[in-house]
Amino acid sequence: MDRPRALVPRHYVAIGGRGPEDVVADARGRVLTGVEDGRILRIDGFTDPAATRIEVLAETGGRPLGLELLPDDALLVCDAERGLLRVGLGDGVVRVLADSLAGERLRFCSNVVALPDGSVCFTVSSRRYPLDQWIGDLVEHTATGRLLRLAPGSDTPEVLLEGLRFANGLAVGGDGSFLVVAETGAYRLTRYWLTGPDAGRSEPFAKDLPGMPDNLWRAGPDGPILVALAGPRVPPLDLLRRSAPAVRRTAARVAVRAPFRPTGTIGVLAVDDHGNVVQHLARRRSGFRMVTAVCQAAGHLVLGSLWERGVAVCEAPALK
């Protein structure tokens, strides 16, 4: 992998809420995000801090994470407490699409994409740890993440993939034939084939990434997949992965109780539909920490974070 280029922040936009974990851009260049208190926000005019406007579109009553805009003025939301939701952007009405599977509550829905056939695919990061104990899953390496599909008109998801190491961001291949799933705990992206001779099978897509992949985003089928790197590689986690399960469980119990502060190293990757990294942007000692999402809007990169109380607006390099 080539040496990374600089990730250059231009300014920070406070949004009046903590943890804009995912960011997505609409057709007018506005950015939508969800924050810790359950609100769905729309950020307009963010290129000029003095002119930025923050609008509350809805309240989920839970903790919104991954978002997916729909063409009918609605938003799909993965809520870590309430499951998979559909939110009307015009009226703010929140509807639960799925909140359980085989009697098990979906406790940690993470990211979501809509497919042309009307079905919805989404990830569950962990079946063992809730959002506020996410670090426990990474330390224990539970591999209980899942990729699920909800058919049109159904309220019962089906399992497409399981055994994923902290399943996270999702993106659709440019031709619609596959999904790309981020496995945060494995530093990799995995491809799941939707159509063709390999339909229903999975394979590595991009391995040994320079950090922990989180949410994924792409502007359209011709553009690359943008990958937010929530943090750098952590060698002690790699050592723990090879330890006995009892050792990992003990370490996880300690980790969820220990104070946590993310590092100042942030990064973004651009990946093509062959799994090649075509751009690597990074910054060390950044004042904006734990980048969990990235999107391109109004000629800029906008970064989201589970940790911060706003978004960072950065220069957008030419993406191949």
TrEMBL record:
<keyword id="KW-0597">Phosphoprotein</keyword>
<keyword id="KW-0325">Glycoprotein</keyword>
<protein>
    <submittedName>
        <fullName>SMP-30/gluconolactonase/LRE family protein</fullName>
    </submittedName>
</protein>
<dbReference type="Pfam" id="PF03088">
    <property type="entry name" value="Str_synth"/>
</dbReference>
<comment type="similarity">
    <text>Belongs to the strictosidine synthase family.</text>
</comment>
<dbReference type="InterPro" id="IPR011042">
    <property type="entry name" value="6-blade_b-propeller_TolB-like"/>
</dbReference>
<dbReference type="GO" id="GO:0012505">
    <property type="term" value="C:endomembrane system"/>
</dbReference>
<feature type="domain" description="Strictosidine synthase conserved region">
    <location>
        <begin position="117"/>
        <end position="196"/>
    </location>
</feature>
<dbReference type="GO" id="GO:0016787">
    <property type="term" value="F:hydrolase activity"/>
</dbReference>
<dbReference type="Pfam" id="PF20067">
    <property type="entry name" value="SSL_N"/>
</dbReference>
<dbReference type="InterPro" id="IPR018119">
    <property type="entry name" value="Strictosidine_synth_cons-reg"/>
</dbReference>
